[in-house]
Amino acid sequence: MNHSPVSPAVVHLLDWQAALASQPDGLSEAAQDAAIADWAQRCWLDLAVVLPHQHHAVLAHPGNLQTAARCYLYAGEAASGWLHSPLHGTPEAPHWNADSAALADEAARLALGRGFCAADAAVLGLMGALAAIDARSNTLPEDFTRQRRHFPLLGTPRALPFASMPRSLRQPAHPHRLYAVMGDADWVIRCLELGVKLVQLRLKNPTPGELDAQIARCAEAASRHGALLIINDHWEAALRHTLHRNSHGIYGIHLGQEDLQQLSDADLDRIQLAGLRLGLSTHSLWELSRALRTRPSHLACGPVHATTTKDMPWIPLGDSNVGWWAQLLHADAGSDHPPLPLVAIGGMTPARAQAAAAAGADMVAVVSDITGAADPAAAVQALDQAIAVGQAQHDAQPAPTWPEPTLPA
Q1: Which residues pair with 66 in a beta bridge?
Q2: Are 270 and 158 spatial neighbours (Cβ–Cβ below 8 Å)?
Q3: Helix (H, G, I), strand (E, B), or coil: what is residue 275?
Q4: pLDDT tens digit string along 102-152?
Q5: What gap in Å lies between CA 101 and CA 115, rounded to an integer?
Q6: Residue 39: what are its φ and ψ, rounded to 5°?
Q7: What is the DSSP string of 64-110?
């Protein structure tokens, strides 16, 4: 076990052979996995009772077995599941060895010392072990936090990726750099008329009739203006319009983490088969890990700065984390996991938007700096120009080696 004397967060590296010792011989792989998951959860519950003033994560690992490099994470109901290498299921998939547990423990200790919460430290722990396996080393590589091929995925990677975003996103000053996230169709249409080419309808608690009417208005306007329309949360309504009303103006869906957890793989298949892009929100490393396993079209990180649009527990990410998120997503983890674009969101002004773009954000999402402006047209122009300037400055800034904590330990 790994106990940090300076942090209330603790990562417990536990050999899962203990979970299988009392199980009958001949268990299927699925039954073994279920037994390990149940055991890890019970260990976590016991630890929470015995040491109630600490925040625990259990990382159940294969011990000394020469087997696939995957671990079971349990750090509470939300942060739980099998952690896999991005190379899982490929000829390059890493294999656990006798040194791997000690290296995962060392990496987790380093993360805890930097103030990460237990779940994020566990993710970084396995990342360190995967980096060492890849390097064929029995010591922890100094730069183990940098490569996407080592960043574990929370859940089995989906077989196919979602459709990609426009290729132009890889170029500075591309037309979709400003991402207007608006609370109703009137504001979406107003932004489209001001020249914004990427808009999201984020409609909260609508009636069914109101939802369908607003989506229809936005889709028609986006098609007319040659813009990309993303529907927040209401994926079933977006599918209805796409499949039954020939609504070609809908480009994709954006989901928060809670909504993502409620979707089955069959639901994700329905979105994917309709040709819709999928964007996902991420706030922490374990959320990033879970989002990446879906192989989405793009990811958002935030809040980069404190925001009044949502009440959230997260520590603002800041531009340093934008830089780390961006270098990770822009890396190629093999043909199955190509580079992904990043959206920065939260408390954006022109100056902050420029800094986020300079750090590596491909798109900057803005809400209240447009809707609260005395002159929305001037606000859109200032934001758009600031992001373009920031993207031109990106290469001058090296990406940080480590991310920074976004949840209290």
Answers
A1: none
A2: no
A3: coil
A4: 999 999 999 999 999 999 999 999 999 999 999 999 999 999 999 999 999
A5: 21
A6: -65, -45
A7: T--SB--EEEESSSSSEEEEE-TTTTSTT--B--TTHHHHHHHHHHH
Calpha distance 367→183 (Å, rounded)? 8
pLDDT averaged over the chain? 93
**CA–CA gap between residue 120 and residue 83 (Å, rounded):** 12
216: tokens are 């229809």
Beta bridge mates, 68: 95
Q: Which residues pair with 74 in a beta bridge?
A: 58, 80
DSSP secondary-structure letter at 170? G
Read out DSSP for 353-365?
HHHHHHHT-SEEE
Over residues 346-376, the pLDDT tens digits come to 999 999 999 999 999 999 999 999 999 999 9
Tell me the three state secondary structure of residue 255: strand
d(CA 244, CA 167): 28
Helices 265-273/235-244 angle, 10° precision: 40
C-alpha–C-alpha distance, residues 104 and 2, integer Å: 10
Which H or E element spans position 178?
strand 178-182
Q: What is the DSSP letter of 175?
A: T
Integer Cα distance of 199 and 222 in angstroms: 8
Integer angstrom CA distances of residue 325 from 192, 283, 368: 29, 10, 24
